[in-house]
Fold this sequence. Notes:
Elements: E1 2-6, H1 12-22, E2 28-30, E3 39-46, H2 54-57, E4 61-69, E5 71-73, E6 82-85, H3 92-101, E7 104-108, E8 117-118, E9 121-122, H4 123-128, E10 138-151, E11 154-161, H5 167-177, E12 182-192, E13 195-196, E14 201-202, H6 203-208, H7 211-216, E15 229-232, H8 235-242, E16 254-259, E17 265-272, E18 275-281, H9 284-289
Parallel strand pairs: 1-14, 3-12, 15-16
Antiparallel strand pairs: 1-3, 2-3, 4-11, 4-12, 5-6, 7-10, 8-9, 10-11, 12-13, 16-17, 17-18
Amino acid sequence: MLLLDKPSGITSNGALMRVKRLYNAQKAGHTGTLDPLASGLLPICFGVATRFAQFLLDAPKRYVATVRFGTVTTTQDAEGEIVASQPVVIDIDRLRAALERRVGAQMQLPPAHCALKRDGRPYYEYARAGIAIPRAPREIEIRALSLCGWKSPDAVIDVACSKGTYVRALAADLGDDLGCGAHLAALRRTATGPFDIAAAVTLEELERSEEGIRMARLLPIDSPLAGMRRLEVDEVTARALAHGQQPDVAAVPGRYAVHAPDGRFAGMAEVASGRLVALRLVDQREVEREDGSALLSSSA
């Protein structure tokens, strides 16, 4: 897995394709879309690791966002057309109080311009065609929301949130709360699950690096499960699991990243009623092929 610092101005898929070419990878996928406007942490999984990417997709995220009050746009961010504007008369105490009220579990209405789908088509296609469709609110959680800076009409905020949170929808909601409207002017993702932007590499750094330096940037195959408990099993248990059996184990019930005594990653399994039940395993031969420079393939 690679921790990429995506620049603003390109899509997440565009960044993925550039990284995929640099590593000559046959299979790769990112773990959570960032809009072209946004920059920041975009973990990219290769090969076997893509099977576990969902766990980073589901992980909590953290962002630094610039909310511009007094201006409403069609897309709730700076890429949309301005549809309303008004003077901003907000003091810092009102702003902090509005942020505090937005912390916690809540229902959020997704933006009309987003990639969620209805009848097989993304919402943004309907929006661009001028077709209004019903949008169901979704439960999210704002875990922390703090003010980093305020110079009217812009507030810089730090947002820790659950998966599925649209920060531009949060910006619009804050504008409604304060009665002057708002949109998202800038966004940077600073964390995904246990991973922080400080450990990420930029596309420019990758593109000017030699192959050995690029390879040294890769994290182990089990990295998408870094936030999950680790369970080390003996060789007999590892073999039994690989052959579809449910061996007895002495471990607390729950999900684990399973490793053999020599550190080999076996996959993800669940302990239930004292037995180890495989959820998603890896073929050790695949792991060995992707270890180190073996990730590189002669065909892109």
